[in-house]
Amino acid sequence: MAPSSMTVDVAVIGAGTAGMNAYSTLRRAGARAVLIDQGPLGTTCARVGCMPSKAVLHAAQRWDGLRQLMPAGMPQAQWRAALPKGHATPQQLWQEALQIRDQLVQGNVRQLHALADSDLLQTGARFAAPDLLELGDGRRVQARAFVVATGSEARKPAQLQEQLGAALITTDELFALHDLPHSVAVWGMGAIGLEMGVALSRLGVQVVATGRNPVLAKIADPEVAKAAQAYFAHQMPMALGCRDVLAERRGDMVRFEAGALKADVQYVLVTQGRSPRLADLALAQAGVRFDAQGRPLWDRASLRCLDSRVFLAGDATGERPLMHEAAQEGTIAAQQALRALGDARWQDLPVRGRSVPLSIVFSAPDVAEVGLRFSELPPEAVVVTARGAGNGRSKIMQAPEHVLRLYADPASRQLLGASLLCAGGEHLAHLLAWAIQRADTVEQLLALPYYHPTVEEMLDNALRDLRKQLRAA
Predict the structure, then answer these.
(1) What distance in Å separates the CA atoms of residue 227 and residue 388, rounded to the nearest whole number?
(2) Are residues 127 and 197 in the same domain?
(3) Tens digits of per-residue pLDDT, 63-118?
(4) Are residues 342 and 410 in the same domain?
(5) Is CB count within 10 Å lower at the N or C end of the chain?
(6) Bond preceding residue 410 cis, omega within 30 of 0
């Protein structure tokens, strides 16, 4: 081939979480691989996703803890004026959170260069043939298989983009702001909308929030959804189930109306999900077939696009936009790609299995769903509830809103899933995910220790109730 061309076993397009895991898996297996990314380098999680959002949430909890020490009903301006000179401000906490984000991105980029070294090609790519990529710098890459891990991009309503201009933002633009906004309307109350709405509100930003879905954070369990809505309604004004909103520019402000909500805000923060970033790849040239909505047809077990050499991973699939899922899918896609090549050395390559579904909203109290969601349960499933009112640690925390729901199979006596609203729920959710993935029975879980007083004792209480109901069944 020409000097400007190269031949590899597998080409990985996208150097985020999924792409890095795919490339690492390929190299460990002894395959020749390249990792292609046009930048900016750094995973979506580190740049504009889970890490900056958690840094801002942590900053918000620090400021909110101070607010809670002030006399009830005291106006914020009054108690802030009473603070000693030199105290931290919301703006300083915002800047600190962004600095932490920058450090994490820099560390991620260093990790990427150390991983791929000269195999990292920092340029764009598009398919010219089923086995050929044309790169943005004029080079060509011929490969026997491809892992597409190009990530996603935040959605913006096209009808408002021209009208609102820079006042219409996603988290991409939010985390690029030097100054903490003074007022924001959050449009979309899924996980990201809830997290950012809560964080900004606790930092003293005037926040109103709305979403098309009548259920906060798309919580499937009705009891957990009810508890979450009751709690977070006190954090910020919300209007859920609003399909139509009015947002129009009025000078330096935006008039925002949704249902009964009416507010003049500095920004409209759109949190309506992310779409796979696939448009510029010319996937049709790779033989990829599409459905009526223009989405690639792919097999969810192998991650392979039908009748092609292309394997999808991470946000590019559009299904499980979570970092741990992207890491798993990058590994699975690489393993499946190697097996599909037909070489004897990779025919017996083990393929990683999928982990139990696990999603967490870091809203303090956290919202989490593990395993089967309530809407997915079989009719025979047994459901039990434990509440904060019956838990010693929750009473100490003055958190009667805590609720834990467990779902079990009466035949196997194993947990099928769980849903919860709980302070520190991220930890309890992990314990439940491990138990479900190991196929632990109720009796096995009850044989484990539950320290007193902890929130984890809610699990002990729920399991005891579950055992009782299973025996009755």
Answers:
(1) 11
(2) no
(3) 888 888 777 777 777 777 777 777 789 999 999 999 999 999 999 999 999 999 99
(4) no
(5) N
(6) no
Helix (H) or strand (E) holding 274: strand 274-276
Say whether the peptide bond before residue 3 is cis (omega within 30 degrees of 0): no
Please, what's the b/e burial string for 359-377 (b: 16 or more CB within 10 A of its CB; e: otherwise)? bbbbbbbbbbbbbbbbeeb
Of 259, 123, 254, the C-alpha closest to 185 is: 254
Verify that 257 and 197 share a domain, yes or no: yes
Determine whether 4 is exposed, middle or buried from the number of CB atoms within 10 Å of its CB (0-12, 13-18, 19+). Answer: exposed
Closest CA to 261 of 278, 240, 280: 240
Q: How far apart are CA 351 and CA 367, in angstroms?
A: 31
Torsion angle, alpha carbons of 197, 200, 201, 207, to 10: -60
Q: How far apart are CA 51 and CA 102, in angstroms?
A: 10
Note whether 308 and 417 are same-domain residues. no
Using DSSP bridges, classify how beta strands 132-135 and 125-129 pair: parallel, antiparallel or unpaired: antiparallel
